[in-house]
From TrEMBL:
UniProt entry keywords in alphabetical sequence: Lipoprotein
Protein name per UniProt: SusD/RagB family nutrient-binding outer membrane lipoprotein
Pfam families: SusD-like
InterPro entries assigned: SusD-like (IPR024302), TPR-like_helical_dom_sf (IPR011990)
Signal sequence residues: none
SUPFAM superfamilies: TPR-like
Source taxon at top rank: Bacteria
Length: 242
């Protein structure tokens, strides 16, 4: 009944494509858990994601526009060797006075992800993980909480940092509540928690602090404090047992 600018659709809980990316990461970490190769699982995840978006989401967005996609188009994406392009602020580029300047109103950013989609068996495990998680991040859209967890867990994909940090310091330390480079690491407790369970809150925050590994000085009930599984002291392959 509207002009086509909005639409509603069921929200998936877990996508089939995510299963392939989970298996690809597991195979990368523990080679004996899978018979299929990391590359095969990675590419199946991409194929499954694209096909699912076309057949499922496409019908909700514009039923008359997309009903199928040629396999060769998916192959071209999987074999792509291009990397992330630089972001150009469209507003700033309308005003030439901002070009080539350090004006804070200009949001131009250099591309950060330097790996292409095409699989490279000679790459390091870290680079392979970056490829897997980056494509998983794309495939999981619009499951933003899941993607945020993946980004905190692995550091991938590499995201643009905020130009302006307006996180409010309410915890007694100097600086912001969220580190600009690290971004938000957790959701803070709601006011309801403090209003209805005030007696338990100090203990909850003590536990949070005991598990916090932030190296930026963030602590307590702020967005920059790390939760237990978001460990700043370990790399992506510290506990694999390989």
């Amino acid at each position: 009944g509207d002009n086509g600018s909005t639409y509603s659709m069921p929200l998936p809980i877990m996508k089939c494509a995510e299963g392939y990316f989970l298996r690809a990461e597991a195979k990368l970490r523990w080679p004996d858990v899978e018979t299929e190769s990391v590359q095969s699982l990675y590419e199946q995840g991409i194929r499954t994601s694209i096909n699912a978006e076309v057949t499922y989401r496409g019908a909700y967005v514009r039923p008359d526009a997309i009903s199928s996609i040629d396999a060769s188009a998916i192959d071209a994406y999987i074999n792509g060797t291009g990397t992330q392009i630089d972001y150009e602020d469209p507003v700033a580029h309308i005003n030439p006075s901002l070009l080539g300047s350090d004006d804070p109103a200009c949001n131009d950013r250099e591309g950060l992800n330097d790996l292409c989609v095409a699989w490279d068996e000679s790459a390091t495990d870290e680079q392979k993980l970056q490829r897997i998680i980056t494509q998983k991040y794309i495939a999981n859209f619009p499951l933003s909480v899941e993607s945020w967890a993946e980004c905190r867990r692995t550091g991938y994909p590499i995201l643009f940092k905020g130009r302006v940090n307006e996180s409010q310091n309410t915890n007694g330390f100097s600086g912001y509540a969220v580190d600009t480079q690290e971004g938000v690491r957790r959701v803070i407790y709601s006011s309801t928690c403090y209003d209805t369970n005030a007696a338990a809150m100090p203990g909850a925050i003590d536990i949070l602090n005991s598990e916090n590994t932030s190296q930026t000085g963030k602590t307590g009930d702020v967005g920059g404090t790390r939760v237990w599984w978001d460990n700043a002291l370990e790399d992506n392959f510290s506990n694999d047992g390989n």
